[in-house]
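Q: I'm writing up a methods section and want to include an example of the input and output format. Could you take the sequence below and give the corresponding predicted structure tokens, formatted cleanly so I can copy it straight into the document?
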Amino acid sequence: MNWDRIEGNWKQAKGKVVEQWGKLTNDDLDVVAGRREQLSGKIQERYGIAKDEAERQVADWERRLGDTWLDDAPRNPPSSH
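A: Here is the clean output for your methods example:
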């Protein structure tokens, strides 16, 4: 999974993030705004874990997420250029 796709579809990804890390608040997710490093930092903070553990969790989540979650995301209509 390319993190740019997560960042670009952050509104849809937020639900998946909350499924994985329920202690994160809406304010946390607004601060993260799709940025991987910010997500890792918030996980560290909320769960009281080390940076390397938070990074590992994000990497595992990203790998499990794959591209299939985007199948449910609304698509932008093609431009008529």
